[in-house]
Amino acid sequence: MKLIYWSSTVIISTFLLLSAYSYLFSTNTIQGIKSLGFPDFFRIELAVLKLIAAMVLIIPMASLQVKEWAYAGVALFLLTALIAHIKHKDSIFIMLVLIILMVILVISNIYMNKLMK
């Protein structure tokens, strides 16, 4: 059970860290976010929130309530990203990756709750 929890949590946290990095330093990502219609300050805000969420999810001593807020924030981000990419008529591959990440996020959350009981 711990293996499933930690594997899924590390995958989500790694995604968040890499995504935050690209939001701040990748010209292609920055242009892509602008083409989706989001303002530049939102890109920076999301990058910071992704860094915080990744840390909260990976640090074992973070409280359950704080972790739940992080899971909710990441789920909201993934859902917003999926809607934006659908509206923008982007590749189905991007949408499938986002759906897979949502499934992994749910698995991480379920197993976190199982381990906490």
Provide an overview of this structure.
The protein is mostly helical and 117 residues long. The chain is built from five helices and no strands. The chain has helices spanning 2-25, 27-35, 40-58, 64-87, 92-116. Helix 4 packs antiparallel against helix 5. The model has no long low-confidence stretch (mean pLDDT 95).
Write the SSE topology.
Layout: H1 2-25, H2 27-35, H3 40-58, H4 64-87, H5 92-116
Helix pairs in contact: 1-2, 1-3, 1-5, 3-4, 4-5
Q: Enumerate the spans where pLDDT stays under 50 for 5 or more consecutive residues.
A: none
Radius of gyration: 14 Å
Main sheet properties: none
> Structural class, from secondary structure content?
mainly alpha
| DSSP E strands, number | 0
Mean pLDDT: 95
Query: In what range is the share of β-strand residues?
Result: under 5%
| Bulk shape | globular
Number of helices: 5
H/E topology pattern: HHHHH
Taking the alpha carbons of the first and last residues, their distance comes to: 12 Å
Q: What is the helix fraction of residues, given as a range?
A: over 70%
Report a brief summary of the structure.
This protein is mainly α and 117 residues long. The protein has helices at residues 2-25, 27-35, 40-58, 64-87, 92-116. It is 86% helix and 0% strand.
